[in-house]
Amino acid sequence: MEKKDEASSLALRVVIDSYEDIIGTGGKNSILNFAGMGKFIDSPPDYSEEDMIPQEYVDKIIRISSEVIGESGTKAIIVRAGRSTMRHIVDESESAKVLSESKDMTPRDKMKALLNLYAQQINRLPDFEFTTDGAVFHNPGCTLCNGVKTKKPFCNYISGVFEGMGIFIAGFYNIRCEETLCKASGDDECRYDITYGD
């Protein structure tokens, strides 16, 4: 398995925890069963940043939720799960906790660091630009919507993750992120427009 096809078991665990936060234990268990990942119901992965699992596990949970819940009802749930994921990251990752508590960095500098870190975690070259009131993140190699065909942007979970970064780590409480381009709807990349809202 190539490194780019891996994620930490922490990443999978916080996604599972976030789904439980938003749709409850029964809803989370339904998603895991439908995704063929029922083994994680009674034995969830560890909160480890070192242990690696296939990236497909994380992507599959998010993709399957659209099938279980339905496309029209998924966006609000998925964005909230993405935000909740970052709250769990701060709870379980010492490096995220240190960054969130840092007084030596401005919220904008924290977001720059976070977007760089996110690009590294998904094994992509950082491809983002900063504007006066936010940032634009480009991901032409998105794995989340790989093989998915929709008329609307699909990767709302990532929008929630970026919002959660701003809320729980950088300190931007009015942050908003919208996926404006998506490979699932035929675009060349997934693009996220992030507005800080100070």
Secondary-structure topology with pairs:
Blueprint: E1 6-8, H1 9-34, H2 39-42, E2 52-54, H3 55-69, H4 71-92, H5 94-101, H6 107-121, E3 128-131, E4 134-139, H7 156-170, E5 176-181, E6 190-195
Antiparallel strand pairs: 1-2, 3-4, 4-6, 5-6
Helix pairs in contact: 1-3, 1-4, 3-4, 4-5, 4-7, 6-7
CATH topology: H-NOX domain
* Structural Rg: 16 Å
Number of helices: 7
- Decide which structural class fits the backbone: alpha+beta
- Tell me the domain tally: 1
Distance between the termini: 41 Å
The gross shape turns out to be globular
Query: Which sequence of SSEs, written as H and E, runs from N to C?
Result: EHHEHHHHEEHEE
The main pleated sheet reads as: 4 strands, antiparallel
Mean pLDDT: 89
Order of strands, main sheet, comes to 3-4-6-5
Can you tell me about this structure?
It is a single chain. The chain has 198 residues and is an alpha+beta fold. It has one domain: H-NOX domain (Alpha-Beta Complex). 53% of the residues lie in helices and 14% in strands. It has seven helices and six strands; from the N terminus they run E-H-H-E-H-H-H-H-E-E-H-E-E. It has helices spanning 9-34, 39-42, 55-69, 71-92, 94-101, 107-121, 156-170; strands at 6-8, 52-54, 128-131, 134-139, 176-181, 190-195. It has a four-stranded antiparallel β-sheet, covered by helices on one side. The chain has a two-stranded antiparallel sheet with strand order 1-2. A hairpin with an 8-residue loop joins strand 5 (176-181) and strand 6 (190-195). Helix 1 runs antiparallel to helix 4, helix 4 (71-92) packs parallel to helix 7 (156-170) and helix 6 packs across helix 7. The longest helix has 26 residues, at 9-34. The N and C termini lie far apart (41 Å). The model has no long low-confidence stretch (mean pLDDT 89).
